[in-house]
C-alpha cells in the first residue's frame, strides 16, 4: 500500500501501488507511481519528488532530489540535489548535483557529479559518461570523450567531446 509504513512526517502525498511503501519518517514529499520511492525513505530525504514507475526506487536519505519518468534516479540511495526528467534519466546515478533531461539522458552516470545533460540518450550514447564531473552536454546523442571525462562542454547533434577542459561545438564530419 502507498505510504503504509509512515510513522512520522507531515505534508506528504503517496499515490500508486507500493508508492513510498517503506517510507518511515519523511516530510514535504510527493511520491507518485507504482513502486516509486519504495524503500525506507528517511527524514534526511525531506522534499523528495518522485513521479513514475520505480522512480527513485532505492532512495533512503538523499535530499532535494526531483525525478519524473519511468525508472528515473532509480539507483540513487543518498545522492543530493539531482534532477532527472525522462525515461530512465540518471537511472544509475548515485552521486550529487546532476541534472538530466531526456529519455535515457545520463543513464550510465554512477559517481559523476555536477553534470548538466540535455537531450535524448545524451551522455549515454556510444561512450556513456559514468564517473566524470562538471560536464555540460547539450543535444541528442552527445557524449564526452570518455566514461570519466571532466569539464567538457559538448554541443550539437551526435557530437562527441575531444578532451577534458575543452569545448566542442558541432561535428566536423557533417
Structure, explained:
It is built from no helices and 10 strands. With 174 residues, the chain is mainly β. The chain has a 10-stranded parallel beta sheet with strand order 1-2-3-4-5-6-7-8-9-10, with no helix packed on it. The chain is elongated, with a radius of gyration of 17 Å.
How would you concisely characterize the structure shown here?
By secondary structure, the protein is mainly β. The chain is 0% helix and 17% strand. The chain has no helices and 10 strands.
Q: What is the N-to-C order of secondary-structure elements (H for helix, E for strand)?
A: EEEEEEEEEE
Q: Roughly how many Å is the radius of gyration?
A: 17 Å
- Specify the biggest β-sheet: 10 strands, parallel
- Total strands: 10
Quaternary assembly = single chain
The secondary structure category is mainly beta
Strand order of the largest sheet: 1-2-3-4-5-6-7-8-9-10
Keywords:
174 residues; mainly beta; 10-stranded parallel β-sheet; 0% helix
Task: Give the helices and strands, then pairings.
Elements: E1 13-15, E2 30-32, E3 49-51, E4 66-68, E5 83-85, E6 99-101, E7 116-118, E8 136-138, E9 153-155, E10 167-169
Parallel strand pairs: 1-2, 2-3, 3-4, 4-5, 5-6, 6-7, 7-8, 8-9, 9-10
